[in-house]
Amino acid sequence: MKQYWYSSSPLQAILFLQQLLDFHETAGAMLASQVLGDTYNIPLDPRETSSASSSTSDFNKRLLSSYICKVLGNLQLNLLSKSKVYEDSALSSIFLHNNYNYILKSLEKSELIQLVTVTHRKAESSYKELIKQQIDFYQRSWLKVLEHLTDKNMPVFQPGAKLKDKERQVIKDKFKGFNDGLEELCKIQKGWAIPDKEQRDFIRQSQKKIVSDAYRAFLQRCANISFTKNPEKYLKYRPEEVEEMIEKLFDTSA
C-alpha cells in the first residue's frame, strides 16, 4: 500500500485559511478590533469617508495577511518537527517536499497567495526555494551509490600492463558497491510516493541523469580493462536498465 507522506496539519491549516479568505473582510475587521479596540475614529465630513474607509480596508488586509503568515510560519515549524520522526533523512526530505509543495499549490489555487504577499512579497519564491532545498537534500541519499563510481582508490592503469590482484579487486568492489546500493535504494524508494506528477517526473529525470551520466563515465573508464573472468557478475546493468529502475521510483500506480 502506497504512503503519500502527508501530514494532516497542512490540510487542516489550508482549510482554515480558505475559510478566512471567504470572509476576509469580517476576519480583518475582527483582527483590527483586537489591535485598536472597538472605538474607531470615523470622520464626520462625508467627503473624508471614502478615503478613511479605504485606509481602514487596507489596514485590515495587512493585519489579516500578517496573521496568515504567522499561521504558515507555525505550520512550517510543525512540519519540521514531524519530519524528525523519520530515521531516513531522504524520506524526511520527501515528506517536507510533499507538504511544502501542497501548501504552495493550495495557496496559488485558492488565491490566498495574493493575500499573503501583502506583507510577505516573496512568499511564493520562498516556498519554491524550500521545495528545491528538499530535493537537494533527497539527492544526497544517492551519494553513497555514486561514490563507487568515482576515481577514488582507482588504480593507475598503464597501457598493456597486467593488473595486480589488489587492483582487480578494487574495480570488482566498486561495481558490487554500486549494484548493491542501486538495488537497495530503488527497493526502498519505490515504496515512497510523490503525488504531484510534475514534481515526481522532475525528480526522476534529474536523478536519472545524475546516476546515468556517472555510470556511463565509469563504464567507459573500465571498458578496456580486464579485471575479471566473469564480467556478467559485475556488469549486471546496462545504463538503460539503471534508468528504467530509477524511472520506477515513487511509483504511485503500484
TrEMBL record:
Keywords from the named record: Exocytosis, Protein transport, Transport
The coiled-coil regions, if any, are: none
List the Gene Ontology MF annotations in alphabetical order.
Answer: phosphatidylinositol-4,5-bisphosphate binding
Query: Where does the Exocyst complex subunit Exo70 C-terminal domain lie?
Result: 14-247
Q: Does the keyword Transit peptide apply?
A: no
- GO CC annotation, single: exocyst
The record's Pfam families line, in alphabetical order, gives: Exo70_C
Q: Per the UniProt entry, what is one GO biological process?
A: exocytosis
Q: What does this protein do?
A: Component of the exocyst complex involved in the docking of exocytic vesicles with fusion sites on the plasma membrane.
| Similarity annotation | Belongs to the EXO70 family.
Write down what this protein is called: Exocyst complex component 7
Gene symbol here is EXOC7_2
